[in-house]
Amino acid sequence: MNAIANPKPATTDTVLRVQGISKSFGDNHVLKDISFDMQKGEVVSLLGPSGCGKSTLLRCINWLEEPDAGHIRLNSERMGYAGSGAKMNDTQLSQMRSRIGMVFQHFALWPHMTVLENVMASPVHVQKRDRKEVENEARAVLKRVGLEDKMDMLPSRLSGGQKQRVGIARALAMKPEILLFDEPTSALDPMLVGEVLEVMRDLAADGATMVIVTHEMKFARQVSSRIIFMDSGHIIENRSPEDFFDHPQTDKAKTFLHSVQYK
Amino acid sequence: MNLTDFQIIYDERETIYQGIEATLSLVFISGVVSVFVGLVLTPLFFSKVSWLRKAVEWLCSAMRCSPFLLFVYVIYFGLPSYGINFDKYTSGLVALIVYHSAYMAIILRSAWVDIPADILEAGTAYGFRGAAMIRRIIGPLLLMRSIPMVGNQWIQIIKDSAYLGIISVVDITAAFNSIQSIYFNPFVCFIVAGLMYWLLCLLIEFIVNGVAHYARERIA
Predict the structure, then answer these.
(1) Which of A15, A241, B1, B87 is the most exposed place for a label (fewest CB within 10 A)?
(2) Cβ–Cβ of A110/B130 closer than 8 Å?
């Protein structure tokens, strides 16, 4: 297990440090002593059978679930706890969360806001940045995800792929230090998966720090700098995509790759 | 029923205008205010502070299970013995607002529970909380999702306002009642009064349908 726990001290490039995270729901121990680091610009894919805890791990990172034990550090600031060691109050927590972008499986756009309003909401109302400046950036971000002609539409008028690209634009507009993707293409028609993956590939190439929970194995291999494979609440492999996909070390990983018909 | 009956009603139009004015103002003010009070009460159902939660639950339960007429008696005849004196119009207005705010809170609570969880979670993940969360995300969705129910409640307010004649508020019902007691033409009087209420309800339905149409593609 030593190779999996944090092997080196955090450096200035360490964006995310996860140390000894555990989480239970009743008797169900979903996460057991999870540790890993992410450097700036790294793309990590979290893989594993359903129920292995990968979505819960993602939700612990931005404190949507409060872990029972362990530390999360975002650029060396501890999530959920203020400098004094006391628990963060709601204001501190919300400011901390607004430094993390999250993309949801079912998009979770705010249905009463137009595309542009969805993208501008958090920068304007949470980060309290200048509206004019935010609007210019939001338009640029929407252009980047190929939705410049949909800005004034309501989400209900968009296809799934378009909705998810709005979801990504919404995350980018906050200038997040890290992006979390919770199965971003699982709810999409197969025809629409490509357009979303293409945007994510573009972000990765541009140096964004990303954690991706996905079932798209080919994509994970192409875009990731590292694969973290989880089973029953443990990280059991944490290696380069080539190593993981070509030479999985554990039986669990072999079984998993076989069952998702990789190769 | 003959034409002179209608002539009488026309001749008494001053009384009827007074009734219409009272009914319209009571319904409009209490209709709008009860939605706002409901919006303030609803978050308390989800408060972490248990006595607040209990208080709002008891208040709503008490209102929902007491007859409106009885509640009007409490406000108009009961409160003065504790030194709280409202005139009859204000008593009626207060009764309508308090009583129907409780219903509005219950309606809005069920709409709140119905909002897809991930939409609210996205709000949390993007740093919204407290008042900003309610103002920017929950509030608009609540209002839009509960429009048909709120419209129903407005119609209920219209009908309950007719009880206020009992404390001598001259509303539509009371106005026509006083006319028929002078001229002994109850059938025509009450039919015309009924048509006025019906028209008012049609107006409410028209507004509600318009807003519901606007809301349809904005509520997920």
Answers:
(1) B1
(2) no
